[in-house]
Amino acid sequence: xxxxxxxxxxxxxxxxxxxxxxxxxxxxxxxxxxxxxxxxxxxxxxxxxxxxxxxxxxxxxxxxxxxxxxxxxxxxxxxxxxxxxxxxxxxxxxxxxxxxxxxxxxxxxxxxxxxxxxxxxxxxxxxxxxxxxxxxxxxxxxxxxxxxxxxxxxxxxxxxxxxxxxxxxxxxxxxxxxxxxxxxxxxxxxxxxxxxxxxxxxxxxxxxxxxxxxxxxxxxxxxxxxxxxxxxxxxxxxxxxxxxxxxxxxxxxxxxxxxxxxxxxxxxxxxxxxxxxxxxxxxxxxxxxxxxxxxxxxxxxxxxxxxxxxxxxxxxxxxxxxxxxxxxxxxxxxxxxxxx
Length: 340
Description:
By secondary structure, the chain is of the alpha/beta class.
């Protein structure tokens, strides 16, 4: 058995070329010119027909593409899904091995391809037609094969790729993305999608939380509330002030009507001003009788704005119902922890 060949020495480090600011700026300007060419030469009648077809579709809008066009097609499909539009991505390779089962009669199949001559997409066309789908090609090369076999074609004008060899799909992918996302927003507006409907599709993100969560969804309530009576001595309520983690006391009467608030800041100021006299002071004597409050049905994001409003920010808001009864407290920490 022969011995293993010795390790070869690592290649010597080659000099690293640096790019200067002028070269970089010229590249961005060239890309801008390519994009301007697209905007100036896009056939709006084709785009309108394409958008209207998607809007009128009663089936699933399925996107497909190969390579970089496939990534763009997948992203646009996900955008439509986030807008509540039934959409999916279909890999042209996997489609011929079973995934074409997603297509049904009445679906729209949108095929993204720069050249319009991708063999994988051309093989997909007759199979998709047999399933009863309506086919639309979105291409950049004039007179391509894909446009000739689809029901509709949209031409995306391409002056050239930013790539110095005019090969890497840099500009073509950019205009595909711009085209697809702009059409998606046109569909969004045509369907009169509301903020609430949009948020319903993004419940875990900050967008959804800011449009869905109400104060009553994030407030502390019942045994979590740091409450006391106005006749209680301040020093007798230190445990309540510190243990509930709200940084305040909610001063209430026997029916839970809000009288005022007393904060840990109020405690420090009172101690500094009164010294040992604090042992004889009641919460009611030192509380703020005109605190900011919030309704339980207000949006949580509005509660945060109210806390941060002038003249000075606060860390909490008592939650009051229409009978001025305390039913909860919302804190800045609680809002931040919930993802707002």
